[in-house]
Amino acid sequence: MRALRLYAPSLIGDHTLCYIHADSAGESCVNEVRTNITYAEAGTDISSGHYSDKMTIVLPEGARLGEGDFLAAGNGDALLRWEDASGLFKVVKAGFLSVSSRVCIWKTIRTAILTVSDKGSRGEREDTAGPELERLITAQGGVVSKKMIVPDERNVIARTLKEWCGEGFDLILTTGGTGLSQRDVTPEALMDIAEKTVPGFGEMMRMKTLKYTERAFLTRSLAVICGKTLVIAFPGSRRGAAQCFEAVVPALRHGVETLAGWDGECGEHPHIK
Fold first, then answer.
1. Number of Cα atoms under 13 Å in the Cβ half of residue 271
2. Architecture of domain 109-260 in CATH?
3. Tens-digit pLDDT profile for residues 187-200
4. Do residues 98 and 111 make contact, with C-beta atoms less than 8 angstroms apart?
5. Measured between alpha carbons, how far apart are the two ends of the chain, in Å?
6. CA distances from 5 to 31, 46, 74, 200 (A)
7. Could you give the CA distance from residue 208 to residue 108 in angstroms, rounded to a whole number?
8. What are the Cα distances from residue 189, in Å, to 57, 150, 157, 192?
9. Can you tell me the distance from the alpha carbon of 75 to that of 170, in angstroms, rounded to the nearest whole number?
10. How far apart are alpha carbons 174 and 245 in whole angstroms?
């Protein structure tokens, strides 16, 4: 669907293009001016009242966001999260929004992150890959509500993942234990819980990261399905995890949506008639 109008009376009315971001206090800004952002369906009178001191994104009739849903401009170039209580968006990812630009309503990807590291589990090494994956998935409409660091023990990894899959997460990201050493057993733990494998994720990671290192094919990263949860194993370094995430992100949301049974293509969310 398309954004039909960007209307902000306090910022000289209608805009064809604007830059949205959050300031240092986390408040929404439009073109560098602190401004609350909301939305309305086509046909709504936005000339006064609730809309008079805000920027209103006018969406096609029938477009409705529920608590925690995201409005993504382009392919997530800018990302806003809807809050029912305030009737406002929170800026998650800064970017440009324009009239007639393609926008999608995204459901929240309920996410957990498991870091696999002997030293990390003993407090002897700082986990940098886990926070990096959290930052990256947040920019794709993910909300991370569970994080843990466990040792490189196959049974511990598998048991933790199985429990989390039973808790209804849409996506679990693991980092660490995908190499060739004797203690690297994360792929084996994923296979212990796998109901299906998704070979393309590991294939894309290895293919796309060859431009960074000729050793890329040594990673044993992979993805599996357990119930309705997609579980993806990433390398243990911050850089390796980020590079592999970049490789798979174009298909990540579609994979999660398909597995979860969320209807329709981009923008044709259950709230869209």
1. 19
2. 3-Layer(aba) Sandwich (3.40)
3. 999 999 999 999 99
4. no
5. 12
6. 16, 11, 16, 39
7. 27
8. 46, 12, 6, 5
9. 20
10. 11
| Pair 210, 217: CB distance under 8 Å | yes
User: Quick one: pLDDT at residue 76?
Assistant: 83
Residues of the chain with CATH 2.40.33: 5-106
For 5-106, which CATH class?
mainly beta
Q: What is the pLDDT of residues 43-54, one digit of tens each?
A: 999 987 889 899
Q: Which helix (H) or strand (E) holds 37?
A: strand 36-41
The pLDDT tens digits for 137-175 are: 999 999 999 999 999 999 999 999 999 999 999 999 999
Closest residue by Cα to residue 149 from 176, 170, 169, 183 = 176
Whole-angstrom Cα distance, residue 8 to residue 51? 8
For the chain, residues classed under CATH 3.40.980.10 are 109-260
Take residue 82 and report the two structure tokens written for it: 């809807």
State pLDDT tens for residues 230-242.
Answer: 999 999 999 999 9
Q: Degrees (nearest 5) of the Cα angle 198, 115, 162? A: 55
